[in-house]
Amino acid sequence: MRPVSVWQWSLWGLLQCLLCSSCLGSPSPSTAPEKRAGSQGLRFRLAGFPRKPFEGRVEIQRAGEWGTICDDDFTLQAAHVLCRELGFTEATGWTHSAKYGPGTGRIWLDNLSCSGTEESVTECASRGWGNSDCTHDEDAGVICKDERLPGFSDSNVIEVEHHLQVEEVRLRPAVERGRRPLPVTEGLVEVRLPDGWSQVCDKGWSAHNSHVVCGMLGFPSEKRVNVAFYRLLAQRQQHSFGLRGVACVGTEAHLSLCSLEFYRANDTTRCPGGGPAVVSCVPSPLYAASSGQKKQQSKPQGEARVRLKGGAHPGEGRVEVLKAGTWGTVCDRKWDLQAASVVCRELGFGSAREALSGARMGQGMGAIHLSEVRCSGQEPSLWKCPHRNITAEDCSHSQDAGVRCNLPYTGVETKIRLSGGRSRHEGRVEVLTGGPGSLRWGLICGDDWGTLEAMVACRQLGLGYANHGLQETWYWDSGNITEVVMSGVHCTGTELSLDQCANHGTHVACKRTGSHFTAGVICSETASDLLLHSALVQETAYIEDRPLHMLYCAAEENCLASSARSANWPYGHRRLLRFSSQIHNLGRADFRPKAGRHSWVWHECHGHYHSMDIFTHYDILTPNGTKVAEGHKASFCLEDTECQEDVSKRYECANFGEQGITVGCWDLYRHDIDCQWIDITDVKPGNYILQVVINPNFEVAESDFTNNAMKCNCKYDGHRIWVHNCHIGDAFSEEANRRFERYPGQTSNQII
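Structure tokens predicted for Lysyl oxidase homolog:
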């Protein structure tokens, strides 16, 4: 046999090696492995890619055979038990749907149910050893706290495929001269191995390999690179090669899932006749603009048919798809990294870091369009993947699929920081301004700083959502930073960083001077998300002619049109469009009033407290958007009227109780209560749009403000009104919305 100069084993060969006591002369243990009480005869290990030493697919050896655990009914409590079996103090999370790759062999446990206090997994309830109806696409994994149990002997723990693992990938510019714009889109491929960063030999390097690398770095695609230039440059530089023989199919979400060959420490000749692998990635227009590159010239594309909702960070969220002009969700059955990666690349990101199930990014409403999506990873769109159309009985919104995508590194988090707060999630906002050689930290004027600006600041910091945007920061010490360097900040709420928001530029103007009148934020990884049940509005709408003598309280609360002030009280009547509104909290945090109980206002007329000045706006609009009638409703009683089966009510208004809406609950405002109407006394017959907006002034932060508005077609003939085609503002396609607003009241005269 011809001798070789490098170790030419694949990762599968490495796996077999690590499991074989005679491979590479590894000594066999002289004594039996030490076992924990209750775990006699069992061994545990973490396996799979990509992962760190304290996370992975859980595998158990029983009766000499290794197997996995199904993710059905798997919980954090079970993860705690397994992490202790593996020698860690506790679990910080768990994974499903074979995030670390599918295992092989038996599936030892299914429907595992633990309380979290068990000393061994054998004390947990399950279907019994080897009794499972799962496939390896449902293998469970754990993420343990990186802290070992004192005195733990890990001789019964085997970490498979760990010693030669590609943990990270980066691109290093061949010529590092001066400050380069981020993100880096072209350079030498470097991988981080256990002993540091190394380069990759380009022998056999393919476009498939580049595609995988670009996906890991947050780019949707790759392009050809001038190899001759880099070869010439490589002759003048020294290189440290640690990897060769990379062979990817192109659908992998991580380089570690490709076939790899590692150099050994004693290999003296590395990459003879070759050079370092070079990759050039194509950023999406969003990130191309940030790096100063020209946007790629491409054919105009229609409206996107996939979007993400409810994510705390860019590139993550619940997957929603457009079908027949209406947005709907995707059922998580058979949802995996390949399908998630297709979504991520379609949206202009890289490959997927995680494929999420179980409505981890909040529950949607309305239709569920797809189920059992099976992608190869090469499809240009999720709609090109084989899938099954579902019926209402097949899936529920508790099974909505989500993704977390790889994003390019832009360094925006290095240009902002918080100071003076009690934790890293709160404080006075400081931004880095100036050019090379004159960089300085400064404060932001608090004038007009609000929730939308705070949302962008928290997103840039990588801290999720904004709980509060503060215009005064008396209780946070500013330290040595006192200069205000930015004012007039105005954001739409979708920007990735504050420098993308409108501001006064170099002309800083602040109405109130002093460091205590500067912008501050309190960030959170979770937020509420309110959504109006549009069908109920349509079903309950009707007209009532209500006598003026019954409207004194409503007039006191400004719930009537301005012409009511000149009416002949108490004679006559007002014509009211009444309807019920049911407001759901589909987010991941309770919706609470911004003001504390100490500032709630008591209204004697109705015998209740107002916790928000304005909670909803009710408007009648003409086709061109002109308002012809309006109403508003103060949130006089934010409470849990009803909840889902497994959710308990937490808020009620009786006896000066706490107000709010719990996640999974809804607040119902019946059509027969005061102010639950629009005064249309002065409205002429015609075709109109009924619009309801929740939390219109953004007083309380939510994960998504685009779904706070509901619109309906209205046809009013002076005696009767037809309300139909009610939908959430972002539930339709752009074209469907244009048709809706162009012909209000014309599409149908029936309630649908």
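The chain is about 10% helix and 30% strand.
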